[in-house]
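RECORD TYPE: protein structure
NAME: MarR family transcriptional regulator
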Amino acid sequence: MAEAAGGRPRSAGTGISGRGVTSPAVWEVLRILGRNPAVSITQLAAEVGLHKSSVSRLLSSLREEQIVDWDERTSRYRLGLGLLALAAPLLAQADVIVAARQELESLVERTGESSSVMVWNHSEAVCVEQVVSAQPVKHSCALGERFNTAESASVQMFLAHSEQQHVRELLRDGRVKRVGSGRGAESVESYLGRLATVRQRGWAVNASETSEQETSVAAPIWDSHGLCAALMVSAPSYRTSTAVFEEHAIAAVAAAARVSHRMGGSPPDGVL
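PREDICTED:
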């Protein structure tokens, strides 16, 4: 059974994914409450365009999840503290963006290449911040762009610090994809060995494996709870020899360590 905020069990009929709560009306109700500090059920029903009884059932489900709160004194509704639990991952991302911004700029100045912050979304690395190289030819990604290729440097970094069985499941289910055999795909066990190397040395490299035009390196960012993001440097392959991307890796690891310090984190014992 899924759990709501605070560890309370979430029933199948009253959860956010439960019957009657997935209607677009839910989002309209939340938007209205976001614009107003306190709203009556009559006002909500009128603005959403539903009968009061339907809105009442909807609000009852949201109250159980603490997504909305009801003021007995005024008989009005407002947004609840349960939203903070839902927003916590986004707030954490905002923290790492702020903490990393200066280091991204310094990395671009030092390496001349684009640098970005990546976070993990269960089976994808997502770009949440980036400083783009000023060079005419460069590699960059759009904010919000997602990567689920096993050979991607940021994906390697996150999987290197995941349970091996979970990595096997992601690969087996295709949620994390491998490059084709024509691109030198490895066996799963060999790939797990590669992740062990990433974990031990403290950085990952994608040496033109997902794109012949790009070489990228990634280093881990830690907060008080564990691995929270990866710092990545991406460059055109034609100007990124082994010696160059190793220099990028050293710079990324140092920058990521400074961000980790700001985030109050450090790698586990035995991990770089």
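COMMENT: Confidence is low (pLDDT under 50) at residues 1-22.
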